[in-house]
Write a structure and sequence with these properties.
Number of strands: 10
Helix content: under 10%
Order of helices and strands: EEEEEEEEEE
Distance between the termini: 30 Å
Strand order of the largest sheet: 1-6
Shape: elongated
Strand content: 15-25%
């Protein structure tokens, strides 16, 4: 499991087998696997997989709807939008709003933490 300090041996396979399945995982937890080759002279250095989550794959969410600016005053503006239709397999935690001045290509975050 990602974040643990030690590796756990989950199995061995014959030299002619080049795949392995395990059900010793928990949905939503991140895992990493490594494999070592063994012969009469010893054990190879390990090679590791990328981090993978058990369960359905999670992807970034889709696009929110086109934002609309409403309620404009000299001091404030209100922005509204709709949530993305695709959440990527995990709940949307919030939104980051950015702004830029007319004529500038520099986008500046309005909020430090995602807006709920």
């Amino acid at each position: 499991m990602v974040g643990k300090k030690s590796w756990i041996k989950i199995g061995e396979v014959d030299s002619k087998v080049t795949n392995f399945s395990t059900n010793k995982v928990e949905e939503g937890k991140a895992y990493q696997f490594r494999i070592l080759a063994v012969n009469s002279e010893g054990v190879s250095d390990p090679l590791e997989t990328d981090e993978v989550f058990a369960g359905n794959p999670i992807e970034p969410p889709g696009l929110a709807s086109q934002p609309q600016v409403t309620d404009v005053t000299k001091d404030t503006m209100t922005i509204t939008w709709n949530a993305p239709t695709q959440d990527g397999g995990a709940p949307v935690l919030g939104y980051i709003v950015e702004r830029r001045k007319k004529g500038s290509s520099l986008w500046v975050p309005v909020n430090k933490d995602p807006i709920q």
